[in-house]
Amino acid sequence: MTTGSGLSSRVQRFFAEAIPLDWDALRTVGAEPVPYHLASWWWCLGGTPLYLFVVQVATGILLTFYYVPDPSGAYESVLKITQEVRFGWYLRSLHKWSANLMIVAVFLHMLRVFFTGAYRRPRQLNWCIGCGLLGCTLGFGFTGYSLIYEQLSFWGATVATNLVEALPLVGPPAALLMRGGAEVSGNTLTRFFVFHIGLLPTVMFALLVAHIVLIRLHGVTELEFRGKRVPASERTFPFWPHHASTELLIGVLLMFVLTVLALAAPAELGPKANPAVTPEHIQPEWYFFFSFRLLKLTSLKTSVYLTAALGAGMFLWPFLEEMLHRRLRMPRDVSVALGVLAFLGFLILTVWESWAG
Amino acid sequence: MSLNAKWVVIAVLSLFFLVALLLVGYRETLKHRAEEEPKAVVTGLNDGCVTCHRQHSAALVMQWEASRHAKIGIGCVECHQAKESEVDAWKHEGVWIASLVTPLDCSRCHQKEYEEFSRSHHARAGEIISSLDNVLALKIAGLPDNPADAVNGCWQCHGSIVKFKRDAQGQIERVGPEHKPVIDFTTWPNSGIGRLNPDGSKGSCHACHSRHEFQAKLSRSPENCGKCHMGPDHPQIEIYNESKHGIAFYANRAQMALDKNGSWILGKDYAAAPTCATCHISGFVTPTGEVQGNSHDVGERISWTLRPIVSTKLNLVRFDDGTQDDFPDTRALPDIGATVDTTEYVVENDQLVAKTVPRKVAKVMTWKDRRESMKGVCLNCHNHTYVDNFYQQYDSLVTLYNDKFAVPSKSIMDELTKEGLLNPKSPFGENLQWTFYELWHHEGRRARHGASMQGPDYTHWHGMYEVSKHFYTKFLPEVAELAERRGHGDEWKAKIAALLAKDEHVWKQGMTPEEAKALQRAYEQRYEEKTK
Predict the structure, then answer these.
(1) Chain B partners of A254 at a C-beta cutoff of 8 Å?
(2) What digits encode the pLDDT tens for the residues A201-235?
(3) Considering only CB atoms, which chain B residues are within 8 Å of A257?
(4) Mutate to test the interface with B, among A80, A248, A258, A261 (most CBs of B within 10 A)
(5) Which residues of chain A neighbour B10 with C-beta distances below 8 Å?
(6) Contact check, Cβ <8 Å, A263/B23
(7) How many whole angstroms from its chain centre is CA B317?
(8) Which residue of A39, B121, B296, B378 shows the fewest CB atoms closer than 10 Å?
C-alpha cells in the first residue's frame, strides 16, 4: 500500500480504500509465470479470438442501434448502415472481417491445442468447452449472415436449416425452433436476431469465463521440445509485462489489419431476399464450404450424419483417445495422424467448393 | 523479441493503425461529400425575392432550390428581369421584371437551344390558330364571346397569343401600386409549345422543361410529350406504349439515366429503350463513336409528314437568317443562294397575320438526309437490314393509305367544291365534311402514326380498319346523298361506280369461290362455326 503524498499516491489510496481487495495478491496473479514457449508467436492464438470477440461485441452493439430485426425493414436498415450512417460501412466491415478472422483464429488455436496434445488429461473438459466456443463462433457467423436478409443469406439459411432438419431425432424440432415454422420466414429472422445478440453472446461469455478460469487453474501446458534443454531459470517468464505486451502487439496489429481489410474490401450487400425466387447459385459462407461440398458429393442424410459424427468425435476426442489407448493399446501418435487427415479433409473440401462451387 | 523491441513495434503498428483510421475518415468524407446535394446559391440580387416568396409561395421556392439553376446561382431575377420598355414589364420591389419568361429570355444563356427550337415545328404549333382545328373549337364548339374550348383545349398544347387587357384607348390595363399589367385570362396561364409571346418570340421552354425545377428527367420521359401527343387525332403516346420501344422503357425505367446531368446520349449514357426525346431530339453515338444529334429542332429527323390529307415526303430548306421551311417532295427544291418567298406568321394588334418574307436559301436537307439522320438513332440497336426493311414497311403503309383512300377522297371533295356542291366557307356544314375530316385527320393519321412507331393495333384496328369502314360505308354513301340532294345524283352515282370498279375496290363485288371456300374452312377450324 502506498504512503506517499503525491497525486498518483492519493488516487491509488482512494481506490485501495474504495475497493478493498488484496492488491498485492492481484499483482502476484498479474505477474504469474508463463511457460517460455509462449514467447513464440504461434502460441498466442488463444488470445486472438478473445480480442476479436471484443471487437465483435463493440461493433455489434453499435450496429444494433440501427438494425431493424423485421423482414420488412432488415435489408433496408443494413443498406442504410452501409450507405447513410456515419462510418456505418466501416463498422459493418469491421464486424464482418473480425467475424471471419475470429473463425480462422479459433481453427488455428484448436489445431495448435490438438497437435500439441494440450487437450489431454487433466484438460479434457476445457477442450470440450473450446469445442463449444467453436460452435458458438460458427453460430454467430451463420445467424449474423442471415440477418442481412439478402437473397444469398436468405437461401443460405434455408439450406442450413434443411441440413439441421435432417439430423436424427433432434433435427426436426431443432429446425422448427430455429425457423419458427415449416420454412424460413419473418419468424426465423426474429429468432436469429435473438440468437445472435442474446443467446449466443450469453453462452459464449459463460464458456469463455469457464475456459479462461480453467486455463488459470490448470496453468498453461508446459511443452517439452525434443533436443531442447531449457535451464530452470528460463522455463518461465512473467505475464506482465512480457506476455501482455505480446497480446497488445497482436491487438494493435489486428486492428490495423481489420481496418485495411475494411478499406480494401468493405462489406457489400447483394439483392434483397425474395422468398419467391430461388437464386441459380446458392453457397453458404466459406466456413461451411466443407459441409456443403460433402452434401454435393453424397446425399443429404449421409453428409449430415457424417458432419454430426465428426463433430461429436472431435468434441469427445480426449475421452475417446484415452479409452482407445487403454482398451485397444492405440498409440497416442495415431491422434496426430487422424488430426492431419481430418484437417486435410476439411481443407480439401473447402478449397474444392470455393473453386468449383 | 526483447520487451523494448516489442514496445517499439507496438508504437509503429499504432502509427500504421492511426494512418489507416485517417484513410477511413477520408473515405467517409468523400462518400458524404458525393452524397451531399450542392445547396442553392442565393445571390444578393435574388435574396429579397427568395426571402419573401419563401413565405408567400414556399413550394415554388423549394422547386427552384432543387433545380440545377439554383446550384449555380441562377435565380429569379436572371430569368424574370425585363427592360422598362418591354410591354409586359412592371417594377416589382424596385426591380423591372416580367411574369412571363419566354424562349427569348432563356436564350440569354441557352442561345443554341433557342435557335434550334425557334426554327422547329414545335415553335410554329401556335399557327394552328389559322387552321380548321381552331374553327372547330372557336366557332363550332364555342360561343362568340366564349372561346373556352380553344382556351382550355387547343391552346394549352398549341399555344395562345398572349394578350393584355386594354382600355378604350388601347392602353394596357395595370393594377396595384406597382402597376402590374393585367393579362387576358383567355391567353394565360398557357404552356403551349407554340405560344406567341409579347416579345415576338415563339414557343415555351416550360412546355417540356416545367418550371421552376427544370428537371431533365421530365423532358426525357415519354409522358411529358404525351400531354399533347395523344388522343384520337395523334395518339403518339398510346402508340409508343403499345410498341416494343415503350414496353422496354417502362420495364427498364430505372436503367434509363433519366436524371443524368448534362448530355444524355444513347449508346453512352443509356441503352435500355428509346423515348420520344431519344429519336427526335437527343444525341446518339454513331458507329464511329462520335456523338451526333442533340438538337431542339424536333422535326429534323422526320422524312414523311403524316399530318395532311395526303402524306408527302418532306425536304427541308434552311435560310440564311436561321429560319427554315418544309418543302413537300411535290415541290421543286430551290438552289442554294436562291431567294424564296416564305410565309411568316406574326402577331399584329393581337392578331396572327401571315406575311410574305423573301429569304435566301442557305442549306437544303432532302427527305433522304433527314431519314439517314433518324437511322443513326435506330442503328444503335438494329442492323441496316432491319432498319431499311422497317422503313419499307412504313413507306408501304403510308403509300397504301395515300393511294387507296386519301387521294381519291380528296379529289372527290375538291371536285364537289369546284362544282359548287360543297360550300368552302362552311367546312363543317355537311355530314360529309365531318366524315371526310375524321377520315384523314383522325383515322388516317392513326394508321400512319401507328406504322411510323411500330404500333400494330393503331395501324390496323384504330387506323386502316376505321378508314376503310368509313370510306365505304359513310363517305361514299354521303357523297351520293349530297349529290342527289343537289340534283347531280346520276352523275355522281356513275363516278362512284367507276371508282369502285377499280382493282383495289373490286372486293365489294364478292370473293372468288376459292377465296370464299378457304375462308369458310378457316372459320370452321378456328371457331367451329359455319360462315353464311
Answers:
(1) none
(2) 999 999 999 998 998 888 776 666 666 666 666 66
(3) none
(4) A248
(5) 245, 248-249, 252
(6) yes
(7) 20
(8) A39
d(CA B264, CA B445): 30
Please report the ipTM that was assigned to this predicted complex: 0.79
Residues in Cβ contact with A224 at an 8 Å cutoff, skipping those fewer than 6 apart: none
Omega into B181 within 30° of 0, i.e. cis?
no
Contact assignment for B3 to A245 by CB distance below 8 Å: yes
Question: Taking Cα atoms as reference points, which of A21, A214, A237 lies closest to residue A127?
Answer: A214
- Using a 10 angstrom Cβ sphere, with 0-12 exposed, 13-18 middle and 19 or more buried, the burial of residue B210 is middle
Q: Which of B2, B27, B33 should be substituted to probe chain A, the one whose Cβ sees the most A Cβ atoms within 10 Å? A: B27
Amino acid at A28: T
Torsion of CA A250, A251, A257, A258, to 10 degrees: 150
Residue showing cell 401571315: B354
pTM listed for this prediction: 0.63
| Cβ <8 Å between A90 and B28 | yes
Residue B479: per-residue pLDDT: 98
Average pLDDT over residues A80-100: 94
CA dist B65 and B76 (Å) reads 11
Distance CA B2, CA A306 (A): 47
Chain B interface includes A206 (CB < 8 A) = no
The rounded distance, in Å, linking the Cα atoms of A30 and A199 is 31
Taking contacts as CB-CB distances below 8 angstroms, the residues of chain A near B17 are 252, 255-256, 259
Give the angle A116-A119-A124 at the CA atoms, nearest 5°: 170
Rg (CA), chain A: 23
pLDDT of residue A142 exceeding 80:
yes
C-beta pairs of A52-58 under 8 Å, 24+ apart in sequence: A52/A98, A52/A99, A52/A101, A52/A102, A52/A105, A52/A254, A53/A102, A53/A204, A53/A208, A55/A94, A55/A95, A55/A98, A55/A254, A55/A255, A55/A258, A56/A95, A56/A98, A56/A99, A56/A102, A56/A140, A57/A201
B90-140 pLDDT, tens digit per residue, is 999 999 999 899 999 999 999 999 999 999 999 999 987 667 777 889 889
Name the grid cell of B130. Answer: 389559322
Q: Considering only residues 239 to 268 of chain A, which have any Cβ-Cβ distance to chain B shorter than 8 Å?
A: 241-242, 245-246, 248-249, 252-253, 255-256, 259-260, 262-263
The partner residue sitting opposite A90, judged by closest CB among B16, B17, B24, is B24
Amino acid at B368: K
B-chain CB neighbours of A243 within 8 Å are none
- Burial code (b: 16+ CB inside 10 Å, e: under 16) for A190-222 equals ebbbebbbeebbebbeebbeebeebeeeeebbe
Nearest CA in chain B to A38: B1
Q: What would the DSSP string read from start to end of B140-208? A: ISSBTTB-HHIIIIIHHHH--B--B-B-TTSPBPEETTTTEEPBPTTT-S---TT-B-TTS-B--GGGT
A241, A245, A259 member nearest B20 (Cβ): A259
Q: At B27, list the grid cell.
A: 473515405
